Amino acid sequence: MYYYGTTAVNDKGHLEIGGVDTIELVKEFGTPVYVYDVALIRQRARSFREAFVNNEVKAQVSFASKAFSTVAMVQLAEEEGLSLDVVSGGELFTAAAADFPMERVHFHGNNKSREELEMALEYKIGYIVVDNFYELDMLEEICAEKKQQMDVVLRITPGIEAHTHDYILTGQEDSKFGFGLQNGQTEEALRKVLQSSWLVAAGIHCHIGSQIFETTGFIVAVQKIFEKMNEWKTNFSFEPAILNLGGGFGIRYTSEDDPKAAADYVVEIIAEVKKQAELYALSVPEIGIEPGRSLVGDAGITLYKIGSRKEVPNVRKYLAVDGGMTDNIRPALYQAKYEAVLANKPLEKPTEVVSIAGKCCESGDMLIWDLPLPETDEQDILAVFCTGAYGYSMANNYNRIPRPPVVFVENGKAELVVKRETYEDLVRLDLSLNEKIKAKHL
Length: 442
Ligand SMILES: *Cc1c(COP(=O)(O)O)cnc(C)c1O
Fold this sequence. Notes:
Elements: E1 8-9, E2 15-17, E3 20-21, H1 22-29, E4 33-37, H2 38-54, E5 59-64, H3 71-79, E6 83-86, H4 89-97, E7 105-107, H5 114-123, E8 127-130, H6 133-146, E9 150-157, E10 160-162, E11 167-169, E12 179-180, H7 185-195, E13 199-205, H8 216-236, E14 242-244, H9 262-280, E15 286-289, H10 293-296, E16 300-312, E17 316-321, H11 330-334, E18 340-342, E19 352-357, E20 366-373, E21 381-385, E22 406-410, E23 413-418, H12 423-427, H13 435-441
Parallel strand pairs: 4-22, 5-6, 5-15, 6-7, 7-8, 8-9, 9-12, 9-13, 13-14, 14-15, 17-19
Antiparallel strand pairs: 1-2, 2-3, 4-16, 10-11, 16-17, 16-21, 18-21, 19-20, 22-23
Helix pairs in contact: 2-9, 5-6, 8-9
The structure holds pyridoxal-5'-phosphate.
Residues 64, 66-67, 85, 108, 207, 210, 246-249, 290-294, 389 line the site of pyridoxal-5'-phosphate.
Domain Orn/DAP/Arg decarboxylase 2 C-terminal: 34-388
Organism: Niallia endozanthoxylica
Binding site for substrate: 293, 330, 334, 362, 390
């Protein structure tokens, strides 16, 4: 078993996290349940921030809230001095509901609606990451109507795609996101912003991928951007105050993954930014990063109750749990891999290999293929590791399965931060065709 953060095995032989026995958590909150190791989230946030402080560069570390957007998580991000990325009116509203300082909120997205942009202006957020010309024109119009200025960071597509173990230079910048850096779109957008009386050109943004283990992609992106920054200084007397390099730092899901320590990515990126600034005699901009997965991913575990078992002779043993693609769609969506143990006996020797199935009516609803486990029965609790990012935030109600609760654990204490959905919640927005039945049930 790999020990993430505060995970340990206690003297009862149970898995514990944040100093709390997972079996006690199941008794109190039921299953399935998402559990977050708050100390590990704090540790990650601090190591990212300290890397900038130690290297004496101005920076904003933003939590990409799409990875796990809830009021409590946004409040934790604020406690740790992080900024916040949102990609929708809903995430923006969550930030407001958490009373997050709006000047540290950044708004992303390739198709923000007029209403969403107006909302961002009303909240007076820090800056809007403008993605395309349609948005640029609409934002200019709204700002003029409201007679309100707004800081704008241009999302550019540098023609780099980074994946776990490598990166690809894509000449044609084929992405639904951002202004092309090489095809003149970025200059055109920049010219528009510089000419506007309402939009303020604050900086440049790029995001090259997700679950990245190598820094090369980031380094090449920095080089390409600085080359252009040098031209912009000459042509427009413009130097971006902010250079935001996005998120995507990889984490360990299984023994196949071997990421660097979170802060090590940052140290290498800072070094390259400083090097390029010196090379072109440009000032070192404020550096932005936007980790999502690497802040919360390995801090989350999901606890499930073991249910039915099906053996296909000589082929496979299926073991079903009381959740699945409704609380973790990543295996079905991306063939994502996870590790798991029995929370009530994590150190017991495996005696068989099973495949963990969800309970949805989909053959693709499998959580883990070929997991070595000891003998199981219905008393057993399965703990799946590393479900903290894109688990709850992608949870859904397929098959009308209520979404699990979220519990924060820290220093031996557990705190419910999202309640379990109820069946009543599931029909709350439904309208009945029959008034009498409505009165009875809804
Ligand atoms: C998804 C995303 C992130 C966060 O990515 P992670 O892989 O979770 O770190 C950051 N910035 C932008 C623009 C994104 O789209």
